[in-house]
Amino acid sequence: MQARGVTLAEADQVLAGDLTGVTWPLLAAILSSCGALQADIQVAHDLFDQLQQRTPPPAGVTDPDLRPQPDPALDPAVEGWVQGWRPSSAPRGSFSTSRTGTASAEDPIEAGLEEETGRVAPPVNFAAEPWPTCGETTPANRASTAPSETTSETTASLGGEHGPGDDHADTSDATLSGPVGQPPTAGSGPANSTTTRGTTAPPVPEAATNPKEFVALMDQYRTYRDRSLREIEREARRHPQVERPYSFASYSTIGKNGKLPRQLLVIAFIAGCGGSRSYIDRWVEVHRRLSLEQVDSPWSPGSPET
């Protein structure tokens, strides 16, 4: 099993059914390396969000990302789901790998070898080989996650989510694609942007030229912020700029009908992802522009929802 950025100890912990302190990106990486289908990963994500909702944060902790994960042994649904990844031929607890990397003597593979050949299989020591990872990051990629002084200077001049001239601009969320209000250039749509998770720049809403690209940029911003739909729902309900809070179901249907989402839904979505007031205003302005382009043909696909 190969998983990006997953250590042997973390993989052993998850395979043993212990989700304490495990984050969703870590769990998703392990599931992908096990060959899980995208639909199965989505079901696991929803279940993971429900567990976070049911687990109260410890005293003094307000950030939902810092809450401890529930003990799978106390939740039959989670325990059964985790146990489903174990070989069906092995009884529960019959084999495991220790945190030191040595396989136990009860491993069913070793037991079958002993029965077939009559000799005792030597212990397997995983510590002799490094844990492989998929797509190991290069020094250049690692450097991109830590903004340099040059990036900070460029950020201050261009504004990022907060726009130019904002004294309270968050330099960690700066956009390097152009100043606010500049018309998008040819080839600047979502397919050519580099606003994915792990970069220092959020999506540029002005790059959207149609409802499909607008929705794609919204999804890119959610990925950039690493927010689940449950977290967006919770954060939007207490955001001062959100006039109407929406439910989890409303956020999950964005873009499904090929139309431009409602403006209030866009505001709630961006606010729930942690967008600043000026960044939300930019999304609203682009939404107005795309809506006006549909006035001549209000019944055409992509016209804004009513």
From TrEMBL:
Residues 94-103, 190-199 have a biased composition (Polar residues). It comes from Actinomadura syzygii. Residues 53-211 are annotated as: Disordered. This is Uncharacterized protein. It comes from the Bacteria. Residues 143-157 have a biased composition (Low complexity).
